[in-house]
Design the sequence.
């Protein structure tokens, strides 16, 4: 009798697990992989507006994450960007006028975005900030911020430079006025025991970036490390180093396929990854959860996606993900 009960109970539990647990999860995953919604909630429209310039591969990865989450959550996802703060603000206003159901914005230049974020809140449109502006996000009325703490990320770079025995580093800022970039350099200076200098370059002009770094390295051979603040600038810094005949190590914030390759072949020392795919994915998912169930990831506090210091040993595993555009 007891054996029969045990068998029946076991079959019952197995049935619950397969239908309500793993099987349901597998079904949702299959639907999302096929580009089909995994939920039956309304077809809401979420807009993302970033401070990206044209051709920045970092934001392609953010978009990939957002689009994957949107497909899963039955969301119509639209994207706009402009590196000029006033035009970014105007793009946000245009989506408010279109009465989108949710907004995802970056606050790289927060003063220019403050009023328009307040207008979204007044219009009843929930806002999530990503990537930059963690300090201002809550004060401006956003639900939450998703990204890395840029000062903490900079501190991680300073620690890694110390571990590598570096004495003089160059922090290359490719967008003047970007508070996140300033925080990265300031964080590095805070923990780095050596001398840190800043170099401002025009990030939309790669030949200028290369010549500026090259000139600096030629003028000061004692610089033993160059830190770029974005993945697209790391290979350019490598070229500048070679042309200058410098022995400086090139390190960078952020990751893409070229950076993963550079870590693997040794032309780059290390990278600090803030997982942009996760920023886009979680921003859409957070808005969906808020609209659907009034859930709030992190209790409204910033949700950190980094920093993660990656080196040559990590590169082979990461190359697969960078090729598909998710790291």
Sequence:
């Amino acid at each position: 009798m007891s054996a029969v009960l045990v068998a029946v109970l076991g079959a019952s539990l197995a049935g619950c697990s397969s239908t309500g647990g793993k099987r349901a999860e597998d079904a949702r995953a299959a639907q999302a992989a096929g580009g089909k919604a995994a939920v039956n909630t309304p077809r809401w429209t979420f807009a993302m507006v970033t401070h990206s310039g044209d051709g920045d591969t970092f934001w392609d990865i953010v978009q990939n994450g957002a689009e994957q989450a949107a497909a899963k959550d039955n969301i119509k996802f639209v994207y706009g960007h402009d590196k000029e703060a006033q035009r970014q603000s105007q793009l946000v206003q245009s989506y408010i006028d279109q009465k989108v159901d949710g907004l995802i914005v970056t606050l790289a230049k927060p003063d220019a975005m403050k009023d328009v974020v307040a207008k979204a809140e007044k219009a009843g449109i929930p806002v999530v900030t990503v990537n930059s502006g963690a300090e201002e996000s809550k004060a401006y009325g956003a639900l939450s911020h998703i990204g890395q703490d840029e000062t903490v990320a900079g501190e991680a770079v300073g620690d890694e430079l110390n571990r590598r025995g570096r004495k003089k580093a160059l922090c290359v800022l490719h967008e003047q006025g970007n508070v996140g970039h300033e925080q990265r350099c300031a964080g590095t200076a805070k923990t780095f025991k050596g001398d840190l200098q800043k170099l401002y370059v025009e990030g939309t002009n790669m030949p200028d970036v290369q010549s500026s770094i090259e000139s600096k390295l030629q003028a000061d051979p004692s610089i033993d490390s160059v830190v770029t603040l974005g993945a697209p600038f790391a290979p350019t810094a490598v070229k500048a180093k070679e042309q200058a005949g410098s022995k400086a190590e090139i390190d960078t914030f952020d990751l893409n396929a070229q950076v993963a390759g550079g870590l693997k072949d040794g032309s780059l020392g290390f990278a600090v990854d803030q997982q942009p795919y996760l920023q886009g994915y979680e921003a859409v998912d957070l808005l969906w959860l808020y609209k659907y169930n009034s859930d709030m990831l992190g209790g409204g506090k910033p949700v950190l996606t980094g920093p993660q210091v990656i080196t040559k040993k990590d590169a082979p595993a990461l190359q697969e993900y960078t090729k598909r555009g998710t790291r």
In short: The radius of gyration is 23 Å.
